[in-house]
Amino acid sequence: MNIESFFPKDIRKALSKEPPGSWMTAVPNGCIRLNSGYPAKELVPSKEIKEAVSRLLYEEQDLPLHYLGSPRMDNLKGQIQERLASRGMNISEEELLITAGACQAIDLIARILLDETAVVFVEAPTYMEALEVFQNYTNQIITIPIDKDGMQTAELEKMLMERKNEGLPNPRLLYTIPTFQNPTGTTLSQQRREHIMQLAKEYDFLILEDDAYGELAFRESPQTLKSLDTESRVLHVGSLSKVVAPGMRIGWVAAACQFITSLYWFKKDLDHPFSQSIMSAYLELVNFDQRTAVLAEKYEKKATALLNALTKHFPDSASWYHAAGGYFVWVKVPGVNTSEMLNQALKAGVAYVPGQYFFLNQEDGTEYLRLSFSYADVGEIERGVEILGEVIQSYLRK
Ligand SMILES: Cc1ncc(COP(=O)(O)O)c(C=O)c1O
């Protein structure tokens, strides 16, 4: 029997690509993990979550373990609405859909909006899992370069104008991570935020705003695109993975009711009532503003350690952006093929993610690497960058 013959054409095409997550480095034991986009171990609130689980099961017994789950799932919506309101987004209950993480949200949005006729604009570089998702639905992906102030909206405008002049269709969707971007750590300037909103109106496209890191500002988080959205063009996606615990997979979409209803059609009840109920019980226990203040302080210290170590140990030819929040620093090392060098780095005891995986055209990422300051501790970060500096020097001498 030929199993493949049962798969529809689109599925066969998707399966012919690299498997999802193939960018993930297999990290040997003892290696310093400057590759992982995970929260620091000590900042995952396992004690409080344990308390939340006990309280939940004591108060509600079997209820959160059923398909329909507990009333706390509705409370979770209210708790998220409050967080969104504190950042200038007044979202009604009908405009909010809880999902199994931001990834499920992105996948559902792609499912209801994209097909092979759809053109999607993304940043270059961008979050590779989103790229993987979009590629499952369309081949028409166009990239807009990033600089230290995020997506270059002048380039975006130029491309939109060129397409119009050539009679090509407008994009249906623009995917952006405007705040503390993955992988570059950059934040879109206010002026560019307003420019994007103006272009969306002029060229009639939707925006998927991925705000997975938006609550992780060292100082202040900028205005979201959603809070500038007067026309319901923005589908705002958020997540508690980076600020609470990724394994709980709690994310959401905040968007116009009609989008939410359509997304719900496909999500159905395919998420996790128990996880949502625990998250709500956990949020009842904590002062979230205090928590984000602690996270900001700790992550800023780690980011500073990483940036100082880069200045000390990387060659003068290397350059990087200064993140004002989030998890990542994006480094360019001229003359180095970062994919080729990875094995040497792993052998020497440090892991990073080679830049190629964040680009549609992978060759554009050859000289870049993504370093994360979220997971390793300050000592490991300093040592890891020192080792990586030595690996780079020896690579360049070859
Ligand atoms: C930009 C971006 N969006 C979404 C996600 C995934 O979030 P979640 O764990 O909520 O699915 C990540 C995780 O790395 C991310 O970097």
| Main beta-sheet strand count, sense and barrel state | 8 strands, mixed
The radius of gyration computed from the alpha-carbon positions, rounded to a whole number of angstroms, is 21 Å
CATH superfamily of the largest domain: Type I PLP-dependent aspartate aminotransferase-like (Major domain)
Compounds present?
pyridoxal-5'-phosphate
Strand content: 5-15%
CATH architecture of the largest domain, by name, is 3-Layer(aba) Sandwich
Q: Which CATH class of the largest domain?
A: Alpha Beta
* Secondary structure: number of strands: 14
Overall mean confidence score, pLDDT: 96
Global structural class: alpha/beta
Number of domains: 2
Q: State the order of secondary-structure elements, H for helix, E for strand.
A: HEHHEHEHEEHEHEEEHHHEEHEEEH
CATH topology description of the largest domain = Aspartate Aminotransferase, domain 2
